[in-house]
TrEMBL record:
Keywords: NADP, Oxidoreductase
Family under the similarity heading: Belongs to the short-chain dehydrogenases/reductases (SDR) family.
Matches recorded under Gene3D superfamilies: NAD(P)-binding Rossmann-like Domain
Any matching Pfam family: adh_short
Domain of life: Eukaryota
Cross-referenced SUPFAM superfamilies: NAD(P)-binding Rossmann-fold domains
Gene Ontology MF terms: oxidoreductase activity, acting on the CH-OH group of donors, NAD or NADP as acceptor
Name of the molecule in the record: Ketoreductase domain-containing protein
Domain Ketoreductase: 59-254
Amino acid sequence: MRPGHLLLRTAYRTARHQSHILSRNRFAAPIIPSLPLQALKTNTGNMSTAAAAKRLAGKTVVITGASSGIGRSTAFEFARAAPQHGLRLVLTARRADTLKQVAADIAAEVGDGVAVLPVRLDVSKPDEVRGFVGSLPEEWRDIHVLVNNAGLVKGVARAPEIAEADTDVMFATNVTGLINMTQAVLPILLARPNGGAGDIINVGSIAGREPYPGGGIYCATKAAVRSFTDSLRKELIATRVRVIEIDPGQVETEFSVVRFYGDKAKADKVYE
């Protein structure tokens, strides 16, 4: 089981409703059509956990936005896939205390066979991203997998009433942050012999393909993620670095709470 398959399974497990989830990588057909939820569970359930553990043995995985939602679930999927094989998980987000709790929860479930390093990081801050790799303990810098999951949405305003601050934070987090994280980690992947090695997994959204009223800026950011991912894949086609995009549909996480500026009652109505 490859890292991209783990995240695809995560997206399905965290989805409240059956939704379209697309996966793109340079070794597969351009688009894997959406499958019924139960069919995907059956297929992934048949994949060899031993093979997944072997692939992840001794690897270092960086997950952004790991304090909740898909990011948190992805961390657990990696840990469960290789609980006794020297896997290292670098979990980043803005909420340091929450990250520490996630690390403790992983340890409680799988034991000490997976090393977890919580790192406070705001990907919307270029200076923080530039210093990220250098701030890690030396033994954690040999990164093999980057999961660009951090992202957010603000408001449901329509033009011309979209707040400039909301536009800025969505692009800084969803687009610029993802690009900056990729640029920080990619040299490590390319430095490996025989054409480099590693995985870059970008979490996009169906919204990047099917824009909707009231989501103009968020949809634009996810369309940008799709374009950047496709371009990056073509740039790296001659290397052994895989570039993967996962496009979830509707998933019940803290996403809508952020969209409605902390109003959980409004957020809950989205999933009714």
